[in-house]
Design goal:
178 residues; minor pseudopilin epsh fold; five-stranded antiparallel beta sheet
């Protein structure tokens, strides 16, 4: 009888599982999984996803929503017609803070806005959103830029023409040929 040569399928699968686990631990340990570019993309995805959900909810609930942006945060608001004012959502009354190294800027109708400082104790009691999401399925045309504070770092744009869902794209560096 001849001796068997080579490895069995089970042995190969065990080696692949071990290599996969070691590679995963190496990536997590090296910090590659939490790189600034990755975190910036995650923040952009979170915000764009939130805007998409609010668009759907505005149409389904026949309500007006808004997003108030500050230099390092944003908050979802809902218009209360009985009171004639904007209110923070009960289930999301907290403000979503951005990491300290992220810089946020926004243009509405191609006009750059100066974002207010974080609301403190002396802030206005009735917040007003800059970005409106209407029950008709429309939203304020906007262009929002998320970037790192360091020069030459990654930058992402979230934008909508007012009728389509928000899209995320990498900002093109000036001076680079296509």
């Amino acid at each position: 009888m001849r001796a068997a040569r080579g490895f069995t399928l089970v042995e190969l699968l065990v080696v692949l599982v071990i290599l996969g686990a070691l590679t995963g631990m190496a990536v997590l340990g090296s910090g590659m999984a939490a790189s600034p570019a990755r975190q910036l993309h995650d923040e952009a995805e979170r915000l764009a996803g939130l805007l998409r959900v609010l668009l759907d909810e505005a149409v389904l609930d026949n309500r007006e929503y808004g997003v108030r942006f500050e230099r390092q945060s944003y908050q979802v608001l809902r218009y209360e017609p009985q009171r004639g004012q904007w209110q923070a959502l009960e289930d999301d009354a907290r403000v979503h803070g951005l990491p300290d190294w992220v810089e946020l800027s926004i243009e509405l109708d191609e006009q750059a806005l100066t974002l207010p400082s974080p609301t403190g104790k002396g802030a206005a009691k009735m917040p007003v959103p800059q970005l409106l999401i209407l029950s008709s399925g429309e939203l304020s045309p906007f262009r929002l830029r998320l970037s790192g504070r360091e020069r030459g770092g990654p930058a992402l744009l979230i934008s909508s023409d007012g009728f389509s869902e928000p899209l995320i794209e990498a900002e093109k560096s000036p001076g680079k040929a296509p």
